[in-house]
Design brief:
Blueprint (H helix, E strand, L loop, with lengths): L1 E6 L19 E6 L19 E6 L2 E7 L20 E10 L6 E6 L7 E6 L2 E8 L5 E6 L7 E10 L3 E6 L2 E2 L5 E5 L13 E3 L9 E10 L5 H9 L8 E6 L11 E6 L4 E2 L20 E2 L4 E7 L12 E6 L5 E8 L2 E10 L5 E6 L2 H5 L7 E8 L1
Antiparallel strand pairs: 1-16, 2-15, 3-4, 4-15, 5-10, 5-15, 6-7, 6-14, 7-8, 8-9, 9-13, 10-11, 11-12, 17-20, 18-19, 20-25, 21-24, 22-23, 22-25
Length: 378
């Protein structure tokens, strides 16, 4: 007997399966080096050009830029997907061949009407989310964004003229941004010449490095969404259907806390580690964790393997006698898989065995990064 299950992309796709919800909402441009030099949204494609080549690398297939490529070496035409946007999001994985680089990462910035831009300049990031019809501009800079050669993941979102979020390699850099100008509330709509390009723009410096992917949306994303996308960059693609034999499901696995991520105001009954109080296969009320105030703790659990099943995922926990309430949740990285409670504490211990739904179980894509979270309120 075989069971059908949609398998999320956890590595760079070699075939285009379409875009997944909710990431397809507002997606206006998507380049994936493994799928060729084309915009997966509009299907605009261009042929080989001197100075741009494709090869395998540590991050997957990448587009290589020599640093001397000409204008329009990696172009996607006069693009109108971002026209008129009052909010927008970009996500790019780029490699710089040298420290403190200068070069165009991607944008529509040919010097005519100009629309938006991501650029490295002597190691700083220049981010122009909007240039409007009247040449008003909103621009944010991050000094020393790229101090060394290497890979950089740039995820940024903009809305309401001056509101913004920026993550570099998953680290929130928003507070370090310098506001250069906030003159444009929207991206211009009068473009007839500027082409959307990666690695170069007319009259600018060429990128010396590589790009694995570049995406643009005309909607904003929250910090949680950007972090979620950082953890699984290919989740924008529709899961690949697959068939698995039911008999191939793995033996039961017991995943227990193995390290503390954050303790908050929670304390262990002995020692200094929360997880050590909860890591036994059979519970013992002799060791426990406690919080006498409102607080959150998070612990990483044992690395597991995908059981190739949508059933049988159970979160078990025991709450001892007390006052106040406790909520529990299961997370993969920063993404919440399932939440339970709040449970009201009583004069007796309570045991809980929470079974994940099929959808919740299928949403787990990385069994090496599962965490349990407890929130006290009392």
């Amino acid at each position: 007997m075989y069971r059908k299950k949609s398998v999320p992309w956890t590595s760079q796709p070699g075939v285009f399966t379409g875009f997944s919800a909710p990431w397809n909402r507002g997606l206006k441009f998507a380049f994936e080096a493994s799928l060729g030099k084309r915009d997966l949204v509009t299907n605009y494609a261009s042929g080989p050009v001197s100075g741009v080549s494709f090869s395998g690398g540590v991050k997957g297939v990448q587009a290589n830029f020599s640093g001397s490529q000409a204008d329009k070496s990696c172009t996607f035409g006069v693009h109108h997907g971002m026209d008129g946007a009052t909010e927008a999001t970009w996500d790019v994985l780029v490699y710089f061949s040298g420290a403190n680089p200068t070069g165009i990462i991607c944008g529509q910035w040919d010097g005519y009407t100009q629309e938006w831009l991501l650029q490295a300049s002597s190691g700083s990031l220049l981010w122009v989310p909007a240039d409007d019809n009247l040449t008003n501009r909103t621009r944010f800079d991050l000094s020393s964004a790229f101090p060394t050669a290497g890979w950089y993941r740039i995820s940024c979102s903009w809305w309401s003229t001056s509101s913004k979020l920026l993550l570099i390699n998953g680290v929130d850099k928003t507070a370090s941004l310098s506001v250069i100008s906030t003159g444009a509330a929207s991206i211009g709509t009068n473009n007839t010449v500027d082409e959307l390009q990666i690695g170069m723009a007319s009259g600018n410096s060429a990128l010396n490095g590589a790009v694995v992917f570049a995406r643009a949306w005309n909607v904003k994303k929250t910090l949680a969404e950007l972090q979620d996308l950082h953890n699984v960059p290919w989740r924008i693609f529709k899961p690949l259907p697959g068939y698995f034999p039911v008999a191939a499901a793995s033996a039961p696995q017991l995943l227990v806390p193995i390290s503390d991520v954050s303790a908050g105001a929670w304390t262990p009954s002995a020692g200094s580690d929360l997880y050590a109080m909860l890591d036994e296969g059979t519970y013992s009320d002799a060791d426990y964790i406690v919080s006498t105030t409102s607080s959150t703790c998070e612990m990483r659990v044992t690395v597991g393997t995908d059981p190739v099943s949508s059933t049988g995922h159970i979160l078990r926990y025991r709450l001892l006698a007390g006052t106040g309430t406790i909520s529990a949740s299961l997370k993969q990285g920063s993404t919440t898989i399932a939440s339970y409670g709040p449970h009201t504490l009583t004069g007796a211990a309570q045991d809980f065995a929470q079974t994940l739904s099929g959808g919740e179980a299928d949403s787990i894509t990385d069994y090496s990064d599962l965490r349990v979270v407890f929130v006290s309120n009392g």
